[in-house]
Design brief:
Tet_transcr_reg_TetR-rel_C_sf (chains A, B); mainly alpha; TetR/AcrR family transcriptional regulator (chains A, B); transcription (chains A, B); homodimer; Tetracycline Repressor, domain 2; HTH_TetR (chains A, B); Arc Repressor Mutant, subunit A; 2 domains
Amino acid sequence: MGGVTTTTSSRTRLSPDERRTQLLDLGVRLLATTSLEELSIDVLAEEAGISRGLLYHYFGTKLGFFEAVVQHAADDLYRQTAPPAEGEPLERLMGSITGYVDYVVANQPGYRSLVRAASGGNDTLRRIYDDTFRALADRFFAVDTGTIDLPDTPAVRLVLHAWQAMTEALVLRWCDDPAGLTRDDLLRVIVDSLLPLLAALP
Amino acid sequence: MGGVTTTTSSRTRLSPDERRTQLLDLGVRLLATTSLEELSIDVLAEEAGISRGLLYHYFGTKLGFFEAVVQHAADDLYRQTAPPAEGEPLERLMGSITGYVDYVVANQPGYRSLVRAASGGNDTLRRIYDDTFRALADRFFAVDTGTIDLPDTPAVRLVLHAWQAMTEALVLRWCDDPAGLTRDDLLRVIVDSLLPLLAALP
């Protein structure tokens, strides 16, 4: 992967924005096999075939680089969980959840390290994590992407937050040990659990 | 609190085990208002009215002290979530969950810091955390404490794990902002969500 990128980038003249985006794409791709703790400026510079100095030029600091890569990965997650434009509400929810499960499966080291960092007290990564899951919850209420007809109340938001936490725990544990459940079984448990949870609200 | 403890402990001759337990009790009490990050040997020594050297004598290292206090707190959580001996399965589950919610509410700083440490990559605290929640799940299958008649399969364990994660997220967020839900409403959402989750299993 690094070789291909190096060849391409050294032969193509890119604008600074294009080059920055290319480096972020590379950082996100590395998160599919590497945790945030293992991902360093050195690794990225080597993979991209450029100097550390140039990387610092684009991202300022090590934290700036982490932040930009994680935000880029979060944007990918958001795109890959977009519900299909058509279909019954629960079918559209199933489409969105399928995107989430497949994203986590394909990006386990990076996703797990984000959860660790966000839960472990890194405020910047916590903010990106919280903003992302709030944006995913927003979709339930948006006119064009709404998957289920829900009133946007604090109590519904609270339950959606808990359901997201449950989904994350379920998918990460299932990646470690499927416990006899197929991907379809897993998707069914996640989707079927939402309405009963909401129904228990007063 | 510190004053009372100091007076008691300086006037009473305790065995080493009793003194150690007394110090652990004090550490756990401090976790009701203090995070693990803020809880130091210095703070405990001052509250207990003894020297740091004596504390190291009992706990070896700083990590040994943290580990012992967190294990002691986890044992408390386990005791306080014991289901009542009598009653219908869902009533007994409600009793156990009520114990959990009240424990978290009463020990927020300590509980949150344990979650942070366990999620953030502290292996020792992660082990205590995982062991505790596995023991809480074990109760569902024990003959004398079983709250619901469940087969002990990997798939049921997986769902119980996710339900515990959901419950924790729900309670911690509710502590920050009740979203119009009373404690009884919250308990109802938690208890009512379990059977539909399990019902979605193939």
